[in-house]
Fold this protein.
Amino acid sequence: MEKVRLNMKNTLKFESMKYESWVLSDRQICDLEMIMNGAFSPLNGFLRKNDYKKVLSEMRLVNGSLWPLPVMLDVEKEFSKKLTIGDKLTLKDKEGFSIAIIKIDDIWEPDLNIEAELVFGTTDCSHPGVDYLLNQTNPVYLGGKIKTITLPRHYDYENLRQTPSSLKKKFEQLGWENIVAFQTRNPLHRAHVEMTLSALEEIDANLLIHPVVGMTKPGDVDHYTRVRCYEHVLGKYPNDKAILSLIPLAMRMGGPREALWHAIIRKNYGCTHLIVGRDHAGPGLNSDGNPFYGPYDAQEILQQFEEEIGIKMVPFKFLVYLPNENCYKPIDEISDGTKYKTVSGTELRDLLDKGKEIPNWFTYTEVANELQKSHPPASKRGFTVFFTGLSGSGKSTLANGLLVKLLQEGSRPVSLLDGDIVRTHLSSELGFSKEHRSINVKRIGYVASEITKNGGIAICAPIAPYEKDRAYNRRLISKLGGYIEIHISTSLEKCEERDVKGLYKLAREGVVKEFTGISDPYEDPTNAELVINSSGIKPEKLVEKIYNYIKERGFIS
């Protein structure tokens, strides 16, 4: 049987070489793996147009199966022009390995605003799912059935990455019948253990700790740290009562719909129950400072469909610590006036940023140590200062001044990635088309991300005229350390006046083509941390202002 499988795999691999290929994004590769391993059953590929429309409006596939969230293969518009319905397309990972073939049944351009409104209930980009959909999704969808060549390669935690079929076999070997899944994208603390133990006792069940190690909410703790934390916490449960398995899911933070999705997925993994908390898979607050979803919306929608899915909901009880009794209790079971303690996610991040001790009543020493190791105080963490502005605005002058100031401070290595210097050494083959400008800015962002990740300071000073590219770098770098964007907003007139290289004059004469501010647009930043006009102010004063801001953010002690 194994020989037959190997032959089929080799045949498909050979076949895949004949077709056009698409390199999958991080989300797409997560979704594809979940389709191929059966976790997204009944899906057998990326949604076709009719299924997509029905999922948006009714949370069902055309065949009537419950399915609350669209799972789509989005591609660039220019790339889509190479394809026609009936074509086959090879899907590759980022290393260039072929992992599947899709037979294209549909090609269309969706209205992403309508999708956002129907799926997430909003078009507010404060919602990370909406932000991804509207700002990172390609404009053309492909729908069709998948043929698996091989599951994506993972080099980490292979023993913990179990498919639905292998996990079901494990449950059978253990003799487990009632299995409670605990969906999580955060480290587990004492209250989580107390709550799950109580739930297991109540329904005579065993626990599957099933954390997401695909894409989660921006700013979440990295999965390596979390897995180390989970392994520590696993030892707090009685023997043979709990196991840990990782799920390569890309979350959408879609609240009630996502809770329903999680339930269907956990049923496919062989679970009988799912713990659903307040604001399950919630994205946080909207632009007005209000929650996107009600605290119990997820629980209510799952109760409505739990019989159809075949999985029961276990409500997550929000526990607080009672110092006088040295125990945890559900917050809705304590009397008025009772003293209690709790630590929110924001408060925990603040403790870590300031290098303060995490209370022992809140978490285990082993977990606290892992969090402190992976999330050092801001003053010891890498960060990037990203200057953007027109040519002649003063970026290079201020960047060089800041470089000297930070080298004198001496807490960390500092690297300057000036636009002209990067062009010479890293992007010498690039021109000044919009595409090439974007590539150059993203290259700078990548180098800065590596510096930041390794605890250094990166100072970047390209023109970076396009908001989309700057947003890309912010997302890339922010998950690895600090990020400060500084818009040098010096007027075009002043920049032309300072034009020591004579470039503006040549651009006005048409000699220099595609020049930012003249024949090519500069898109003003919408969320820069600092906006500085360098006109009439000595550079030394502006450098001091920037340096003080960095100090205020806690990056310099």
User: Anything to note?
Assistant: The first helix runs from residue 2 to 16. DSSP finds 20 helices and 18 strands in the chain.
